[in-house]
Each structure stands twice: as C-alpha cells, then as structure tokens.
Amino acid sequence: MELNIKIIGYVRNDFEMAERDQADSIMRSVSTIEVLEEFADGLYKIENYRELNILFYFDRSQDYDLQTTTRSGDFRGVFACCSPRRPSPVGLTRVVLLERKSNILKVTGIDALNNTPVIDIKPIISPE
After folding, report:
1. Which segments within 13-115 are labelled E, that is strand?
2. Structural domains in the chain plus CATH codes
3. What is the distance between the alpha carbons of residues 124 and 89, in angstroms, rounded to a whole number?
4. What is the pLDDT of residues 33-47, one digit of tens each?
5. pLDDT of residue 16
6. CA angle 66, 53, 12 (to 5 degrees)
7. d(Cα 102, Cα 120) in Å, to the nearest integer?
8. 22, 82 in Cβ contact below 8 A?
9. In this predicted model, what pLDDT tens digit does every residue of 10-26 receive, in sequence order?
C-alpha cells in the first residue's frame, strides 16, 4: 500500500526548537498557517468556522517510544498521550481561527514549531 500525503502549507510562529515545557506557550501564542497557493482555493468559506482541526507532520521528531512519561509525570503508552515521538509522526491540534487573509490563517491553539508542514485542515462541525 502506498500513502499519498501532500504538504498543503506550513506553520509560522516564533518557536524554532522544541523544549519540554514549551507546548503551553506555543498554544497560547498566535501562529499563522500559510497554505500553499496551489491549495488556497480549498480555504473557500473556512472563515465560517470558529474552530479547525490541523493535521501536521512532526518533521523534527526522531524515532519513537511506545511508552513515555508525560509532562505531568504520568507514565503512559504513546497512543494515550500527545508525544511527537510516534510510529507515524502525525500531529493533530484543535485551533481557534482568528482571521483569514487570502491563503493565511491566523490561529491560536496550535502546538507546532515554526515551518512545521501542515498536511490537512478540517473544520470542527458541531452536531445540529
């Protein structure tokens, strides 16, 4: 089986290196997601949603641990935590969309470093 995953954009913020206790600071800050021009039409009406799921690639994560100690000191399996050291280095973050200007989304809540590749964006759709 072949996986066909495309990079559709990149996270832009001031956080260049992963530090153990940095995730909360990143999530509280304002970041942008720069969607590549070839995918910009896919953002049509995205501003109708307040929250989005952002899937990204942990491009700086090396190897993985099936069990790890979390920031809170709890020992868990990798699938029961948010560690970037995963067998498939895919991250998922729920963000608040603050603004859209053309192919740029201004968001809060993302826990990805500057230049992290974004692989998909999905709106949070509330059940009616």
Report:
1. 30-35, 51-57, 67-69, 75-77, 90-101, 104-108
2. 9-60+89-123 (2.40.30.70)
3. 22
4. 999 999 999 999 999
5. 77
6. 90
7. 17
8. no
9. 999 988 776 656 666 77
